[in-house]
Specification:
Layout (H helix, E strand, L loop, with lengths): L7 E10 L4 E6 L1 H4 L7 E4 L2 E8 L3 E6 L1 H6 L10 E6 L18 E11 L2 E8 L12 E4 L2 E9 L2 E6 L1 H6 L10 E6 L1 H11 L9 H6 L4
Antiparallel strand pairs: 1-2, 1-6, 2-5, 3-4, 3-6, 4-5, 7-8, 7-12, 8-11, 9-10, 9-12, 10-11
Keywords: Repeat, Riboflavin biosynthesis, Transferase
Organism: Lederbergia graminis
Pathway: Cofactor biosynthesis; riboflavin biosynthesis; riboflavin from 2-hydroxy-3-oxobutyl phosphate and 5-amino-6-(D-ribitylamino)uracil: step 2/2
């Protein structure tokens, strides 16, 4: 479990490609401080497991499903990545619940500076907007952000100067891809209300039949 508050921007040291899988080695002295084999680290929003580490870097395996579903497949040596260690039970919880399980990707279609903020408009993969609401939370490349506007499959977020400087998103531009994780609680609610198990989903007729007018 993560908070979406990025701890460090690491650098991809090496990428070893399998037929459908990957092995990444990432430089970050801050992140490896206190790390153990088997620990979870969010890499651009993707929860990955530490398999090897020393005082300068850590290595993770990326399975085929993750390669296919995220932008991890686009990483090359020298590229920066957002990093966050799994949240500790005794720490402040300043972002929102982020699982590190990517729902899909998005494409930056507009980037605009407004006063001290930078606005990003991101075109979401089909179906992801159903789990988003204005003023709700979304994790973009692992960064916890607030949705300022939602128009169809276009989502708008705004970065304050600190977030723009200290996350990978601040370095991305129009045409770049990002990982999207929608709000965990919202996904459970939508699934429950639209599930065909037990009910046929929530509709006006369903509410009327159960005493709601």
């Amino acid at each position: 479990m993560f908070t979406g508050l990025i701890e460090d921007i690491g650098t991809v040291q090496s990428v070893k490609m399998g037929r459908q899988s990957m092995e990444l080695t990432i430089l970050s002295e801050k992140i490896v401080d206190g790390v153990q084999i088997g620990d979870s680290i969010s890499v651009n929003g993707v929860c990955l497991t530490v398999t090897v580490f020393n005082k300068e870097y850590f290595t993770v395996d990326v399975m085929p499903e993750t390669v296919k579903a995220s932008t991890i497949r686009l990483l090359k040596p020298g590229m920066p990545v957002n990093l966050e260690r799994a949240m500790s039970a005794n720490g402040r919880f300043g972002g929102h619940f982020v699982s590190g399980h990517i729902d899909g990707t998005g494409t930056i279609v507009k980037k605009e500076k407004k006063e001290n903020a930078v606005y990003y408009v991101i075109k979401l993969d089909e179906g992801l907007s159903a789990y988003c609401i204005p003023k709700g939370s979304v994790a973009i490349d692992g960064t916890s952000l607030t949705i300022f506007e939602l128009a169809g499959d276009l989502l708008t977020v705004s970065l304050i100067p600190l977030t723009h400087q200290d996350t990978v998103l601040g370095r991305k531009n129009v045409g770049d891809f990002v990982n999207i994780e929608t709000d965990m609680i919202g996904k459970y609610i939508v699934h429950h209300l639209t599930s065909s198990k037990g009910t046929q989903g929530i509709s006006t007729s369903f509410l009327a039949e159960h005493g709601f007018y």
